[in-house]
Amino acid sequence: MALLFYVFFVILTLSMDYSAGGKHDMEKQLKKNDIIPLEISGMSHDGNGVGRFQDFVLFVPMTAPGDKILCHVVKVNHSFGYGRVMELLEPSPMRMENDCPAFRQCGGCSWRHIQYQEELRLKQQSVEQNLKKIALFSQPLQPILSCKEERYRNKAQYPIGKDEHGRVIVGFYARRSHRIIPCSDCKLQPEFFTVLCNVVKDWADRHQISVYNEKTGKGLLRHLYLRTAQKTGQTMVCVVATSGKLPHEEELCECLIQAEPSVRTVLINRNLENTNVILGKHNRILFGKGCIEDEICGVRIRISPQAFYQVNRDAAEKMYQLAAEYAQPKDTETLLDLYCGTGTIGLTMAKRVSRLIGVEVIGQAVEDAKDNARRNQIANAEFLCADAGKAAQHLANRGERPDIIVVDPPRKGCDDNTLDAIVKMSPQRLVYISCNSATLARDVAKLEQNGYHFVKGRPVDLFPRTTHVEAVVLLSR
Length: 477
Ligand code: SAH
What we know:
Low-confidence stretches: 17-27
Number of strands: 21
Strand order of the largest sheet: 8-7-6-9-10-11-12
Distance between the termini: 56 Å
Structural class: alpha/beta
Mean pLDDT: 91
Shape: globular
Bound molecules: S-adenosyl-L-homocysteine
């Protein structure tokens, strides 16, 4: 195979006419639909293999560093392009046998073809590289915290549609499309989710229940939304439909409970909007309390359909433990938890500090946070519903001086308002939890210019088989 690759390479290289061989000549030469031999040498942050043809960079999905491929060039931009694998001439030693029949079509996993140990190595590398490139750090991070790489998710949202024979399908959207592919057993979800999908599918077929059509806005069933609490073993089934009432709904409810004893609540969520947002505002309870409860780091958390909850509970628990280990909370100290969601991180440390303040922009999440504090008899917590930057400025101006600040912002990181206010409040320890190491590095660099220094950091894998990776970093004043 190696020989074949080099023979291809030589023939193709000779047959392409580049006058001076420089980058700009290459750009002219490499065209859409060219077929070239390519060796994959690295990985982009969004999970594509990266290969260089002379100086020209090509991104090729579903490849691994070390692969030698015959690449079909599908798009050429100014300085880079995209390709697809026409033939895998020599597989990388990082590869593993793909074990999911839907892998090529489904948009869920990017890395089901790479061994998990290698995936962890790539994730560690990508966080370290961003910190090195953007924040100019040279210290290595602690080795990535891994987790169970299969069946780790506690939440799934299956679109409901019909196949070409008019039979109901409950499945997944194909990569970058709204075409529904049937739900073969997904290895990221618990096995019993597939059982629940089949119950809904059979019930809908039996009673000829209509499915929603995105173009016309007609039809009833939109999504099957499932959540399970991994610690307490309680499951929620929520059928998203264009009406809050469904024909034969009691029968559906009974079938679900019979098929899966962990089902504690069944709801119908009404969503009439022509939107990609899955849940509407209105829930109608068919069975149970309308919510389930989980436990993380010893704190009971109420999970309603709308509430944010980490999709990988077990790994999130390890990440919260790491955040607490970095934060070193003491019973005389005040902790400020910015971007707190339903309060989980702060609440898991609340009993070890004298006071907790949480800030979150979504009103419902703040209500959930307050409710979670009450349920756990945590009386030293206060939650503010506001933009993190504005609230932090307000707290700084009213003279708050928290000893510890934890931030867990969305992908775009913290804005300048937030960072300025943090510097003003000058906590002794700052724990930054990030789902995007590029913005983490940018923000850490800014904090370093303002009196903070990097103490330690560690990537945490919450989403095996996808390109997402979290990181926890401790900064000290
Ligand atoms: N720390 C929580 C949630 C982290 S996700 C947990 O581990 O469960 C990031 C959170 O930041 C989300 O809840 C999101 O609603 C919130 N958020 C996004 N932009 C914000 C802003 N400008 N101000 C405050 N919170 C914001």
